[in-house]
């Protein structure tokens, strides 16, 4: 097998949750390009079907495993449906996740003490409880297959925190903790478990920020690479983590954040103090 071949997933049976748009759809595209047979999950049937139709042009037609992961018992059903339709599972990318929102869907960026209890509960239900349920059920199918790979789509917020998004950051930190904890317990069954921690990525989830000038500028001022990540860039890292190329990689949380989490990274776009702390003025060495 060449190094490049080790990134392929020919015939691997993989469930991707949250595959109706954004990062999940891009991940599904990347895995399909690498030869995987896919089951796609999300709530919105039409969008899911659109993902499947587009991906079908790349390889085997994906099967659908729709459902609201926040409903009690649904997460296990979604995983079981995917396994039944694909004839087993070799991998799961659990990507579905939400920000706290108002009833009209507007993101709620509020300090914890002002966040309505219902918004906290909703975030915990989708980002944490559903994650645990997906993992629990995934273990059954991955161990039955003799091993496999589980990837949790966490966030840089889970590593460095996110003021005004405490509920989100706490659930994303919990995903990293789950991935690391499960990885050790499941390793001898041949199951690798990792978390992927993107930074600001251009999707519907973040449209409130990349749609507005001053907020967009302020956010990017904190990102050393100075731009948003594209979903396809997150998908490339997901493909690596799922593939045999990452065969010795487990219990890892991979940051893909344009440098945001580097100690001084958050100051990248903000004027630095004069030397010896900052860069010398232009013309001086
Ligand atoms: N975008 C970023 O900047 C960023 C950064 C770091 C981490 N992430 C993480 O990456 C993941 C994907 O984010 P994204 O930006 O691609 O978000 P997105 O565009 O809002 O897509 C979210 C996906 O999750 C599905 N979903 C949401 N709630 C669900 C539920 N209750 N049951 C089943 N499916 C559900 C959505 O489909 P339906 O609405 O059809 O159900 C959709 O397919 C999330 O876990 C997010 O936390 C995103």
How would you describe this structure to a colleague?
The protein is an alpha/beta fold. The chain has a single domain (8-267), classed as NAD(P)-binding Rossmann-like Domain (Rossmann fold, 3-Layer(aba) Sandwich). Helix content is 40%, strand content 12%. It contains nine helices and seven strands. Strands 3-2-1-4-5-6-7 form a seven-stranded parallel beta sheet, sandwiched between helices. Helix 1 (22-33) crosses helix 9 (231-242), helix 3 (74-86) packs parallel to helix 4 and helix 4 packs parallel to helix 6 (166-186). The longest helix has 28 residues, at 117-144. It starts with 12 loop residues before the first strand and ends in a 29-residue tail after the last strand. NADP nicotinamide-adenine-dinucleotide phosphate (NAP) is lined by residues 18-24, 42-44, 47, 68-70, 95-98, 126, 153, 155, 198, 200-201, 203-206. NADP nicotinamide-adenine-dinucleotide phosphate binds next to helix 1.
